[in-house]
Design brief:
By secondary structure, chain A is mainly α. Chain A has eleven helices and four strands; from the N terminus they run E-E-H-H-H-H-E-E-H-H-H-H-H-H-H. In chain A, strands 1-2 form a two-stranded antiparallel ribbon. Chain A has a two-stranded antiparallel ribbon with strand order 3-4. In chain B, the strands form two sheets. A two-stranded antiparallel ribbon of chain B has the order 1-4. Chain B is globular and about 55 Å long. Classes of the chains: A mainly alpha, B mainly alpha.
Chain lengths: 293, 282
């Protein structure tokens, strides 16, 4: 079968990769958005924390024999705890200052994490085996679907929508949204805002690490895997605007798909298409697609 | 010469962050683009070095106009992210376009003869040229800051709504400052290409953008001399450390970043100024 002279197998597999990338963009920009909402900080270390999630999973498997499923829970926990420590020990001191200092601090942290991992593991990258239960694939008739890739999409969408549900529909989420609107008022009503902030940062970071574990079997586990991704995610965040949770998820997925399509029809542009879209959105709607100006 | 190039780069960057309050995370794009343009002009077209540097500066200024008019639509953190993303786009283009040599960069750029007369392969002559360019760039920045124009920039930094209500076209002032900053960053990049006879991908990479932020922060935000001190310190550190610790350089840069942000926000020159002020009062 062919569409526009391009076989559906090629189209399907590129769209699948696009969807996978899109779900990573979605998880990462979701984490950035909730951290930004409450802390007013752009977490530049997000990419590094994504990389750390993948490495924790890899170390757990190769050194301690801990399998994928356990790692999927343990790695975000560990990286999330480091996030909590960072918030408690460093970020907390910066809230009264210009928000740019938070960006600079997390940039410094990203350099440290990347440097340490590069020194320990080199830049060649390590491969992570696909867990047995998810290896192999199914033939959908028009294309071949590796089961693991399907799982990544399902898992990340579940996490995204779970987070959305938690924020929009539960009491904890209501506190969080209230804190985003006016944290002094929420504090006055007797809610422990500093704890809420710590939790939020830890959760955002854990989301990044979760994406990292999901990514480990698809991409190589590499100290630099996060740094190039995070810049694309920044562009995604600018395009979507950080006003809404659902907005971040949809923008992430959509851009992943567009990137996949570009790779089919005009491969040379695939690495810049997200940035081009950012430029167009900035010209037409500077606040972002879902943003409130 | 490397210090002078980076000092000019950091001064140009500081004009924007220290005096207008705009954090650009994409200044490497100007440094790198100017480097490529200058390298191509001198090596492949065969113009003299001063024309090459002018071409590089002009290219960076033009790019600055493009980036600036997009990025000033947003402020604060968004501004930083937009400049970073745009610079990353330049990075990807630099990898893909054939003329820039991809991962190899432009190698073997000749230094040539200044005005067709002075042979720049002589390091002393080259040094004085770099020094002159640096002084010129520094003078431009000094004049910009100490002009009525610079006062308005500071007013925008301190209180933007107020500057608007006073009737200033804030967007225009920001854009002009952005272009000046980009052009001077480009001048630094073009000069650097001649010094090292090389224009490479690492100059366009976001690490270079991060470095210049660090230099400015370490030296002292919003001080005139700070970026020079910061650039000298960082370049010296990198040169010294590269031999002894290898890949730990990134870690050390990160640690300096964290320390600066947490407890050293005024930077070296800023702290010194505060010290002098305090001792003057006593």
């Amino acid at each position: 079968m062919e569409i526009f002279g391009i076989s559906t197998a090629l189209l399907g597999s590129q769209l699948l990769i696009g969807l996978i990338n899109g779900s990573f963009y979605a998880i990462l920009s979701l984490g950035l958005a909730i951290i930004f909402g409450l802390l007013n900080i752009i977490n530049f270390a997000h990419g590094a924390q994504y990389m750390m999630g993948a490495f924790v999973a890899w170390i757990a498997l190769t050194r301690f024999g801990i399998n994928y499923w356990v790692a999927l829970i343990v790695a975000p926990l560990i990286v999330g705890i480091t996030g909590v420590l960072i918030e408690r020990l460093m970020l907390r001191r910066l809230y009264k200052l210009d928000h740019l200092y938070g960006l600079l601090l997390t940039f410094g942290l990203a350099l440290i994490f990347e440097g340490v991992f590069r020194d320990q593991f080199g830049i060649s990258g390590e491969s992570y085996e696909v867990p047995e239960l998810l290896s192999g694939g199914v033939n959908l008739g028009f294309m071949f679907l590796p089961i693991y890739r399907g799982w990544v999409i399902i898992a990340s969408l579940t996490v995204c929508f779970g987070t959305w549900y938690m924020i929009e529909r539960t009491k904890l989420g209501a506190y969080l949204r209230a804190g985003t609107e006016n944290s002094a008022m929420v504090q006055a009503l007797g809610i422990n805002v500093p704890l809420l902030i710590t939790f939020t940062y830890g959760y955002g970071v854990a989301l990044a690490a979760f994406a990292g574990v999901l990514a480990a079997p698809i991409f190589q586990v590499n100290p630099l895997m996060g740094s190039n991704l995070i810049i694309v995610v920044f562009a995604v965040v600018v395009i979507g605007g950080m006003g809404s949770i659902m907005g971040s998820i949809l923008t992430g997925l959509g851009l992943g798909l567009i990137e996949g399509l570009t790779r089919v029809f005009y491969p040379e542009a695939s690495s810049v298409v997200v940035f081009v879209i950012m430029v167009i959105v900035l010209l037409l709607r500077p606040a972002g697609l879902f943003g409130k100006s | 010469m490397k210090i002078l190039c980076y000092a000019l780069f950091a001064c140009a960057f500081n004009l924007l962050l220290g005096f207008v309050g705009l954090l650009s995370f994409g200044h490497a794009a100007f440094l790198g683009t100017a480097g490529y343009v200058c390298g191509m002009m001198v090596r492949d077209v065969g113009v003299t070095p001063e024309v090459g540097i002018l071409a590089g500066t002009a290219a960076a200024g033009l790019l600055g106009w493009l980036f600036g008019s997009l990025a000033i639509k947003r402020t604060g953190i968004y501004f930083a992210m937009i400049t970073l993303a745009l610079a990353q786009m330049v990075f990807f283009l630099a990898i893909q376009i054939k003329e820039t040599g991809g991962e190899d960069g432009l190698q073997g750029v000749p230094r040539g003869h200044l005005f067709g007369l002075i042979d720049l392969s002589d390091n002393i002559a080259m040094y004085y040229l770099v020094f002159a360019i640096f002084c010129f760039g520094f003078f431009v920045i000094y004049r910009t800051i100490h002009s009525p124009f610079g006062q308005i920039l500071k007013a925008i930094r301190e209180n933007e709504p107020r500057a608007i209500s006073l009737g200033y076209d804030v967007a225009k002032f920001k854009l002009i400052a952005f272009i000046i900053s980009a052009a001077l960053a480009g001048m630094a990049g073009a000069t650097k290409t001649l010094v090292f006879q090389l224009a490479s991908l690492s100059d366009v990479h976001w690490h270079a953008s991060g470095e210049v932020v660090l230099m400015t922060l370490l030296g002292g935000l919003g001080t005139i001399l700070g970026p020079i001190v910061g650039a000298a310190t960082i370049v010296a550190l990198q040169t010294q450390l590269a031999d002894s610790v290898g890949s730990w350089v990134t870690v050390i840069m990160g640690v300096i970043f964290v320390i600066c942000v947490l407890s050293f926000r005024r930077g070296i020159v800023g702290e010194l100024q505060a010290l002098i002020k305090r001792s003057g009062v006593n």
